[in-house]
Amino acid sequence: MNSPNLPPSAQMMNLLWGKTITTAISAIAKLGVADHMSDTEPASAEALAEATHAHAASLYRILRMLSGLGIFQEHSGQRFTLTPLSRTLRSDVPDSVRGVAVFQTDPWHMRGYENIVHALKTGESGVQKAYGRNGFEVISEDPESLANFQAAMSNYSAMEGALLEPLLDFSAFQRIADVAGGHGTLLAQILRLNPNLQGVLFDLPEVVAQAPSPVTRGLAGRLTVEAGSMFDRVPAACDAYIMKHIIHDWDDGHCHRILRLMCDQLAQHAPEHGRVFLAEMVVPHSPEPHPAKFLDVEMLVVTPGGKERTTAEYSVLFASAGLELVRTLTTPGPICLIEARVAA
Predict the structure, then answer these.
(1) Are 125 and 305 spatial neighbours (Cβ–Cβ below 8 Å)?
(2) Which residues contact 286 (CB under 8 A, 6 or more apart)?
(3) Quick one: residue 108, left, alpha or beta (phi over 0 = left, psi -120 to 50 = alpha)?
(4) Residue 97: other Cβ atoms inside 10 A
(5) How far is CA 107 from the centre of its chain?
(6) Class at the top of the CATH hierarchy for domain 156-284+303-342
(7) Is the dihedral of CA 251, 256, 261, 265 positive or negative?
(8) 328 strand-pairing partners
(9) Residue 273's closest CA among 199, 189, 171?
(10) pLDDT of residue 152
(11) Which of 135, 238, 257, 269 is the one with CA 20 to 30 A from 89?
(12) Contact criterion met (CB below 8 Å) for 248 and 241
């Protein structure tokens, strides 16, 4: 949408439309519009409005705007088909991001961004300013927000699972715990790739209670579920721990506590070969745009002290908890697999 041939003021105006684009996509996702569309048969705005209980004229205006960005394809007679972009807003496709789109404009999330100036001035999250407590506490009190958040995290797991899959050879281990593992998408993938491995899905009681059985189907006897807080304990008798997009949610003090618990367990049960794996983005030192830099601002606004970190920052964080960085494995996308062990 932006072009270097435009004057700077016009380029900035185009960037400022970002809020309009995000909220429009999220609204379409919340209504489930894409689920009533196909790649080949155009559907009228009126028919889509009837199917989704929307206002036809208003729905047309939003679909028209998004079609200009390639998100839908507009045809004569105010009719639309899916494009590869809008197909990801369907609920039934492997690369669905509908959950992410819905989560983006949940009220608690939007209120965080309403308070971004406060975050800039104080370092305290916008959500903390709005509610007087952190975002995880806020969503734990609202079943709909919690369900939307977990659906978004499952979308991320599905998207990033394909990128991480070549790195998930954990055949050297016997028992792995996915700490704050949500609905178990990543752990189920790991266990299917490593048929001799046992797994523990560990998360808060209200999260694991919603873990969908289809994700873990066929893994009976190999996958167990434990409820608890990662700040109090982690599953015992494991020789590997993995967390995906968890460490980035917290400040160094909270991260130290989680990693120290893992280090203590590994020191008892697998001091030589035990490992901690973090699936996270790593902030590059180059000045170019990078998803980690965008996600870092998200962490500033909505989490209690979370941030994206550089490789050097991860090394320092591990050392504070009695671990040492072994290596950082990259993928074709922004997600990396960071490996640590008990320090010698």
Answers:
(1) yes
(2) none
(3) alpha
(4) 21
(5) 18
(6) alpha beta
(7) positive
(8) 338
(9) 171
(10) 92
(11) 135
(12) no
**Residue 198, helix vs strand vs coil:** strand
CA distance 208 to 200: 11
Question: In degrees rounded to 5, what are phi and psi of residue 134?
Answer: -75, 165
Q: Closest Cα partner for 276 from 341, 219, 220, 217?
A: 341
Q: Which of 250, 216, 131, 224 is nearest to 140 (CA)?
A: 131
pLDDT digits (tens, 9 = 90+) for 137-164: 999 999 999 999 989 988 888 889 999 9
Helix (H, G, I), strand (E, B) or coil at 325: strand
Here the tokens at position 6 are 């435009």
CB 155 within 8 A of CB 95: no
State both tokens at 175.
């028992």
Query: What are residue 288's phi and psi, to 5 degrees?
Result: -65, 160
CB 173 within 8 A of CB 199: no
Give the residue from 273, 240, 276, 271 showing the smallest Cα distance to 256.
276
Domain boundaries, the chain: 8-90, 156-284+303-342
Q: Say if strands 240-244 and 175-179 run parallel, antiparallel, or are unpaired.
A: parallel
Could you count the other beta carbons within 10 Å of the beta carbon of residue 18? 10
DSSP class per residue in 231-276: TT---SS-SEEEEES-GGGB-HHHHHHHHHHHHHHHHHH-TTT-EE
Residues 73-98 have pLDDT tens digits of: 999 999 999 999 999 999 999 899 99
Q: 338: part of which helix (H) or strand (E)?
A: strand 335-342
Q: Is the pLDDT of residue 2 over 80?
A: no
* The domain over range 8-90 is classified in CATH as 3.20.20.80: no
Bin 70: left if φ > 0, else alpha if -120 < ψ < 50, else beta.
left
> Which one-letter amino acid corresponds to residue 247?
I
Where residue 217 falls among pLDDT bands split at 50, 70, 90? confident
Catalytic residues: 248
